[in-house]
Amino acid sequence: MSRHILHVATNIAHFDNPAHPTGLWLSELTHAWDVFAARGYEQRIVSPRGGKVPLDPRALKWPMRDASSRAWLSNPAKMALLSSTPCPADINPQDYDAIYFTGGHGVMWDFPDSEGLQAITRAVWEKGGIVSAVCHGYCGLLNTRLANGSFLVSGRKITGFSWTEERLAGVSREIPYNAEAEMKARGALYEKALLPFMSHVVADGKLVTGQNPSSARATAKKVVSLLGGL
């Protein structure tokens, strides 16, 4: 039986400063997409508002522009998937076995307060599906509450782009909040790799998170292994 994966991507094209572009960190989508495609999974992309998903230009330069990203950029059918995405109201969460939140700094603005995304995530989780995220994608889990009112992340091990990595990336003064600190404030048990920017994946039951762009493939592979046991 084919599994169904729902990818989530941002609609935000710049920081608060319009001269500083951002968007989807493309490889965080393509690396996971490749892993799921190799298993024959059905995949779809949703965004908070629907419509176009902008691409972070930093992710389109060497060394981030790898073979996976180049293959996507040169494929008109794949690029079309990012030019016209459905919004949460168009999605039936019962159709999906897992949700995967992609990153890029843009998600810090439009993921946390999307009630539509929260409803989908809660539904996937409470029907026994897998909730996953990579890098800044974990911002999409900040405000998601379960039916009992508790935060989904409370008391659960999680990772995502660290404050150290924000500082090393030179954007700590431009982002709207410290995601690592906000996760801890919600009771999440945040973990990170010993060294910044190294692949690091944390799985706590059906919650799977990767720390940074280098973690996307490993995150998707963990999701695949869990789906095999459902």
TrEMBL record:
The residue ranges of the DJ-1/PfpI domain are 27-225
* Keyword Zinc-finger in annotation: no
Q: Which UniProt keywords apply?
A: Lyase, Stress response
Record SUPFAM superfamilies: Class I glutamine amidotransferase-like (SSF52317)
Instruction: Answer whether the UniProt record assigns the keyword Cell division to this protein.
Output: no
Q: Which CDD domains match?
A: GATase1_Hsp31_like (cd03141)
A Pfam family of the record is DJ-1_PfpI
Q: Which GO terms describe its cellular component?
A: cytoplasm
Q: Which GO terms describe its biological process?
A: methylglyoxal catabolic process to D-lactate via S-lactoyl-glutathione
Q: Which GO terms describe its molecular function?
A: glyoxalase III activity
Protein family = Belongs to the peptidase C56 family. HSP31-like subfamily.
**Full protein name:** Chaperone protein HchA
Q: Which organism is it from?
A: Komagataeibacter saccharivorans
Q: Which lineage ranks, top first, belong to the organism behind this chain?
A: Bacteria, Pseudomonadati, Pseudomonadota, Alphaproteobacteria, Acetobacterales
